[in-house]
# Entry
Amino acid sequence: MRALLLSLVLAAAALAPLQAANLDPATPDGLVATWAKALRNNDLKGLFALLPKEQQALAERQYVDNVTHADANDDLQVNAFLALMQQPSAVDMLMSQAQPALAQIKPDELVAGLQQVAGFLGAAAQQPAQPGTAAMDVAGLQGFVNDVAAWIPKAGLDDKVKLRAALVHVVAAIKGTGFTTAAQMRALALRDLLGKVGPAFTEVKAALAVYDLKLDAMLDSFAVTKVEGEGDARTLTLGWKAFGKPHSTVVKMVKKDQAWTVAEGKDSPLAPYGQLLMLGMMMGSGLGGGAAPEAPPADGQGGAKPAL
# Structure
């Protein structure tokens, strides 16, 4: 549980969308801005429509396959959960189920793990880039990780009152979809399902706000600050605010079949954060008493640890 929480907060930068003044999806910066606008408006159906056509078609084929081969036992579990969400005691029951996990959350240990990650990044910043690996804004990530570490003690992740307040919004989100059975969900095409689920994100954002994670404010702060490149490749620099401080990241875009999309492989914006996510999980798994992995020595000779 602690490793999962640590991994999620570290992944926040990778999952956050971006905003710019240009809203023309035929341009790379306009496409990124339109993604952000769709998420700001909880428009999952519109966001899906902005994906490359082949990705939309693949997702729809996979969805139809899953619907066609639905598992009866899975349906029973989904139906039971949806029935629970309709009960006046839904929040109380979720609270009772969450108590064991809540007791395992140790904010000080999460902070210690993040500080180790920040120390690792400080050392990694001094190392030459390895050929074939994803480029990572190490200094920027180190600052973000430090900001997350500063947020955790004030967030109240182990606070029962805050958990209950968040669960009120979670239950409202699920009830807001109008679904009471798995069959109702399967009866919809993928685009229509996204259209039904999208408005529920208002309540999901409200649940995050209980912990002072204001997603809409973050989305409103994003801006494309630089566009570089020519032809079928662009590199976008994007600025955004989180935890009260400015941050930035770089996204590479490529043009395929006359449409712009995010680069894949080692040029994907998720690639370096995937490396960081794995590091966070390693650090989190060591918080229960085992020793966390040591950061690589800054001088490349062995022995020296970075200052935390």
Observations:
- Residues 107-124 form the longest helix (18 residues).
